[in-house]
UniProtKB/TrEMBL annotation:
It comes from Saponaria officinalis. GO terms for molecular function: hydrolase activity. The lineage of its organism: Eukaryota, Viridiplantae, Streptophyta, Embryophyta, Tracheophyta. The active site is at 172. This is Alpha/beta hydrolase fold-3 domain-containing protein. Belongs to the 'GDXG' lipolytic enzyme family. Residues 86-310 form the Alpha/beta hydrolase fold-3 domain.
């Protein structure tokens, strides 16, 4: 069954007369408070992947919240060998998916193998059950755990990670989270985690704003062309009910006067030509350079591609090319 067929089948099950909030094709909230998510409901356990030779395990980092991380370690890493660490934040609009979702488990197995890196995939809590800033706080707790692990609390980190080669990455909402973790790391008022990421990778990051830029107006449907009508505007307010709106610096980094404090030496941004979020990637680069940030930033666009195509069709040539560029970034000096 194709992606479109799965979606149509899911939408056909919606009881429209009972819907309170409609965020299709992601989820709907019913008047009785129940939630129907169309994606990200399945999970797979950690395992040894015979195809990639990568071993994974889950570690609960917060018994109070149940937040955990899934770690990935290629068995090709030799005793005493030090490699890079990738801390990854999954996507899903802050309302879907988990670190155990099959598509993320498969992707990080492949990425860890090809790049020969240790991966820590963060399973943060999602809205509306846990509205923002829960996802940001859980992700920060994961970074605190990583720092302790590097100091000796976690064998895979202590024995095999070069503390000078830590990278942050994420797709969609996870790209947004990676940005905000780097902002918090660069803040002089929060020193609970002493870590300077070597680099950040953002894939189709979920940033937005009140004013339409680039091709956004053309890509929106007629009913979505007002700020109130756009699914991205509504979804952000749904996930973050305390927000000031779509120009909140948490969703529009260009409005953040502290943007130049981003803690990273280099940044790689992936965008897709047909993705509604495409122009936000270029806007982010422009705003970052204007902020006085002194690092290196590059934007790579995939032609004729849509949002998270590399996860939806990982066997495609475009997905393989994105993977190669991702790996090259992690392995660059």
């Amino acid at each position: 069954m194709s992606f479109e067929e799965i979606l149509m089948k899911a939408l056909a099950s919606v009881k429209q007369e009972d819907v309170l909030h409609d965020y299709t094709p992601l989820l709907v909230v019913y008047k009785d408070g129940s939630i129907q998510r169309f994606f990200g409901n399945h999970s797979v356990p950690p395992s040894f992947d015979t195809v990639t030779g990568v071993e994974s395990k889950d570690i609960i980092i917060s018994p109070e919240t149940g937040v955990y991380v899934r770690m990935y370690k290629p068995r090709s890493i030799q005793v005493g060998e030090k490699v890079s660490l990738l801390v990854y934040f999954h996507g899903g609009g802050f309302v879907l998916e988990s670190a155990s979702s099959p598509q993320y488990h498969s992707y990080l197995n492949a990425l860890a193998s090809k790049a020969n890196v240790i991966c820590v995939s963060v399973d943060y809590r999602i809205a509306p059950e846990h509205p923002l800033p829960a996802a940001y706080e859980d992700s920060w707790a994961a970074l605190e755990w990583v720092v302790k692990g590097l100091a000796g609390d976690e064998p895979w980190l202590k024995e095999h990670v070069d503390p000078a080669r830590v990278f942050l990455a994420g797709d969609s909402a996870g790209g947004n989270i990676a940005h905000h973790m780097a902002m918090r790391l660069g803040s002089s008022c929060d020193t609970s985690v002493k870590l300077v990421p070597r680099g950040i990778v953002m894939v189709h990051a979920y940033f937005w704003g009140t004013d339409r830029i680039g091709s956004e107006l053309q890509k929106l449907t007629a009913s979505e062309r007002s700020p109130q009508g756009s699914l991205l505007d509504r979804l952000w307010k749904f996930a973050s009910p305390g927000t000031s709106g779509s120009d909140d610096p948490m969703i529009n980094p260009g409005m953040d006067p502290e943007l130049g404090k981003l803690a990273a030496e280099k940044l790689l941004i992936f965008v897709a030509e047909k993705d509604l979020l495409r122009d936000r990637g270029f806007y982010y680069k422009e705003a970052l350079l204007k902020s006085g940030w002194k690092g290196e930033v590059d934007v790579i666009e995939t032609a004729e591609a849509n949002h998270i195509f590399h996860l939806l069709n990982p066997a495609s040539p475009d997905a393989a090319h994105l993977m190669d560029q991702f790996v090259a970034f992690l392995n660059s000096s």
